[in-house]
Amino acid sequence: MPELPEVEALADFLREEAVGRSVTRVDAVAISALKTFQPPITDLVGRTVTAVGRHGKFLDLTMHVDGADDLHFVTHLARAGWLRWSTSLADKPPRPGKGPLALRVHLGDGVGFDLTEAGTQKRLAIYVVPDPALVPGVARLGPDPLGSDFTAERLAEILRAAGRSQLKGVLTDQARIAGIGNAYSDEILHAARLSPFKPANGLSEEDNAGLYAAIHGVLTDAAGRARGLAAKELKSEKKTNLAVHGRTGQPCPVCGDTVREVSFADSSLQYCPTCQTGGKPLADRRLSRLLK
Prior knowledge:
This protein is α+β, with helices and mostly antiparallel strands. 27% of the residues lie in helices and 19% in strands.
């Protein structure tokens, strides 16, 4: 799943490649991905990309045409979505089918991008709105962890308000903190040496400081590594630099212990027992109690 660092890198890439180009055609292949219908997505044709921004894990392209208000092309790539940039898009409209292509945006001279989504669970979301705040997921976002208003004190307030909610869930709750998903929450908790099941309001001042430093450090480092990469290179870069997420059974790069996993209905988390849970492996979530 693309998270804050990858979406920020995509935004950087599009600022370089797409800003100043005008939309010549939009091919909507998977109508289910379109979450807004007024204004229609065809209203983007003739508009120029003037800015690219990010709201948590949402990508936001500002589209301008003289004599009309700006429109925002906002997309959430969800778990299996991606943006594929091309300098040789086929001129022939794609045929709807069972493939991964959801939407194609032509920016002239064969240049443009596809929004694709692998798998059977189609969660890719595309919005065309006059204001990104009209997108429900954007409107409910918590503070950006790389924003100037996200301080150690702000994090402490968020954790106190979360009560006994588990740290893993608090970090991935977009209404509390924007942009962190399954992978980077595992990485942050490993860097902070905290159990994913520890209650949010059970942290000491030292734990709070360590968690804040881990959030800022992990995300800043990941964003820095991703910066300047082409869109097609971002996925492999992310996987290569993860310490515990997706590395079940491999040695922890810090202590050498075996990385363990806890599985859920449709996802899983990874952690290091020595670094995070006092050497104790976590049992199935439904049967485990919190490791303090």
